[in-house]
What we know:
Layout: H1 8-24, E1 45-48, H2 55-58, E2 68-72, H3 75-84, E3 92-94, H4 97-100, E4 117-122, H5 131-143, E5 148-153, H6 162-177, E6 185-187, E7 203-207, H7 218-225, E8 230-233, E9 246-249, H8 259-266, H9 286-298
Parallel strand pairs: 1-2, 2-3, 4-5, 4-7, 5-6, 7-8, 8-9
Helix pairs in contact: 5-6
Amino acid sequence: MKSYLWPSLSVLEKHCTEWFNHKYSTTPFIPCVHEPSSYQASEEVDVILVGRLHEEILSFQTWPGDKFRLWSLCSVARKARILIGQMNETEMGLIPRYELFPLTLPARRFPPKKTRWTLVYSGRISSEKGFGTYLRICSELQELGEEVLPIIFGILKQGKSEKEKTEMKEFKNLIEHLNWKFKPEIYVGVSSDDWIKTEMMQPVLFNFSTFINEDFGVSAAQAQQAGWPLLLSNWGAHRDIVGANVRKFLVTDDAFPSAKEILQEMQIDLPLSPAYKEIRGRILNRKELEIKALNLINQGVTPSKDWPLGVLHKTKLIFSGRE
């Protein structure tokens, strides 16, 4: 029997199952979806840990047999689990993001200035997923003269805990009382497979999640696979997302970039490639590049003319937007 903690998990399970079937001719076990009893004790099982880090292991009284391999979905979660579980590097695998969701469509540029476009939020509606920030930034962008249409795929439902109830009250208040030229449209009942197929004007995905267990980001994977530009927090699984039309920002629960700063990042003209190669190892974010560039300038070395994308003079530093 399957039970999905959140709708997008069904999409993730499908892609993971296809990957393991193709790669290893096995069917993976996902603790928060499957029951251990569905596997024979003699089988070798690939166990995918999704969310909750080490709690995923601690919450089960029985594993599917004694022959299993552990896998994580992003490098941050993998490192955390290795640290918490005092494991060796070889005891925790990493499933390559861009093999689960390969990029085959051309990447689109961010919308030009003074054109109408859509800022899309898709997923669980909560403060830790950046929903309140999304509403505030949409309103700020409109006040700056941007013809931005806020579209939301999710449900504003009353939570059970006091925290959830307070959040929903705040979100409804923001929707009602922020300054809007175009009020947010909320699409309810669209499946996790179909929301990405909705016709929208120059869509850009927004996800400023600071969720502690953000270990994949299905909507971001779907949007990037469709070629959309992305505005993301530099958090969790988002650190593994790369591309010339991806912008990441340092975000906390109570601090986020202004709409003006976001617009400035969107308007930096970056060359696009039709598909991105799998990138392994440490990913340099824009802020680290800027610091390195300043250090070079202070040493009398001039960055290359196509900064920030190009290879810097006298360095081997290459930004992720170039193949």
